[in-house]
Amino acid sequence: MIRLLAFALLAGSIHAQAYRFGRVWDGEKLLTNAVIVVEKDRIKSVGARDGDAIDLTRYTAVPGMIDVHTHLTYVLEANRLTQAGRGAAAVYLSQDNAKKTLESGVTTVRNLGASDYADIAMRDLINAGLMTGPRMFVSGYGLFITRGGRGGGPGTADGVAEVLKVVRQQVGAGADVIKMYGSTGSGQDVSGDQTFIYEEMKAAVDAAHALGKRIAIHAYGPAGARDAVRAGADSVEHAADMDDETIALMARKKIFYVPTIDHNRYYVDNAQMLRYPEGATGPLNDFIARNLETAKKAFRAGVRFAMGSDAVYTMFGENTRELGWFVKAGMTPEQALKTATVDAAQLLGVDDKLGRLKPGYLADIAAIDGNPLENIDVAIQKVRWVMKAGAVVVDKTKQ
């Protein structure tokens, strides 16, 4: 019996590996010269420990970060293909987006909108170990109204009955979360005109919640954001110019704000590549300023934030630049980091296993060269090593 017990203990220890960091920020507190022991895909322990450990003392360990607004399957090359081939091609071509996302220290994403259910396929390939990429929570098709000749596709929903149907179709197809486009606005378009009316938003929220799913509502302008908040969305995306009443209601209802300020910076920087017409960057820069001011007001009012990049095309790898805008909005570096870890995990409903470096949590770890609690820029620019579910997926420690 003793020999059998000893063998069992030895077999269990084979899967355990210790990593020593100069600093460990576990989501709440900062530890120095701490060791994280990983067993299979989970964290076994965090703290002081003697004995052998892989030396990562140059780095600060933080929880693998979470980007709650991406479009991993948006690739420019797929746009050159015929419509029939785009879905499969997008999954194949998105592998580079997935790799760059991991390199930014992001180990989990919420993907909000994809054609041909490419995001569901990509999620399943990653989960099966057939593709390397972040853990994905996906929405399938986002809900649109018929507008300006656009409509008739799988996400189109005009009226309450169609909204209920399309929400159920996305869940039936395997979506983890529902996405609803509550206003215009995308790319160079910063118009923000409300699309779905309140009754339709409320129907979508209720249908998603009845099926155990959360819902994100896209709203560039204040009217769509107001009705999204009234309807009880779990998060409101973008949303510049929200009035004080909407912000106060958002805080009371504990609805998350995902302002995605940096994605318009990306459009400005890449206007030529994206073939935007002359003059397009002016409205984009104006929207950035208004978006930042709204974020400042919302933060002061106690609204909960989650980090979302709205990364598309070649923006992957820049996923965490939003954290810099959050510091500009008044957050400390630690508060900004929480939007990409503790708070983002709450929004996804996985705060019992992601967003912290705690025993029993999934072993998602990003190692940063520097102290992100003092300077948020190192979290954005100096991720050197990444572990996802116990497997090292990025190692730039020798560079």
Describe this structure in words.
Helix 5 (160-173) runs parallel beside helix 6 (198-210), helix 9 (261-269) packs antiparallel against helix 10 and helix 11 (322-328) packs across helix 12 (333-339). This protein is globular. It has two domains: 2-64 and 355-395, Urease, subunit C, domain 1; 65-348, Metal-dependent hydrolases (TIM Barrel), CATH 3.20.20.140. It has 14 helices and 15 strands. A seven-stranded mixed beta sheet has the order 3-2-1-4-13-14-15. A five-stranded parallel beta sheet has the order 8-9-10-11-12, sandwiched between helices. Strands 5-6-7 form a three-stranded parallel beta sheet, sandwiched between helices. With 399 residues, the chain is an alpha/beta fold.
How many DSSP-defined strands?
A: 15
CATH superfamily placement of the largest domain = Metal-dependent hydrolases
Tell me the helix content: 25-40%
Overall morphology: globular
Beta-strand portion reads: 15-25%
What is the succession of H and E elements? HEEEEEHHEHEHEHEHEHEHHEHHHEHEE
Q: Could you say how many structural domains there are in total?
A: 2
Kindly, what is the distance between the CA atoms of the first and last residues, rounded to a whole number of angstroms? 49 Å
Name of the level-1 CATH class of the largest domain? Alpha Beta
Biggest sheet overview: 7 strands, mixed
The low-confidence runs, each spanning 5 or more residues with pLDDT under 50, are 1-13
> What do the pLDDT scores average to?
94
Sheet/helix structural class = alpha/beta
CATH architecture of the largest domain: Alpha-Beta Barrel
Query: What's the arrangement of strands in the largest beta sheet?
Result: 3-2-1-4-13-14-15
Counted by DSSP, the helix tally is 14
Rg: 21 Å
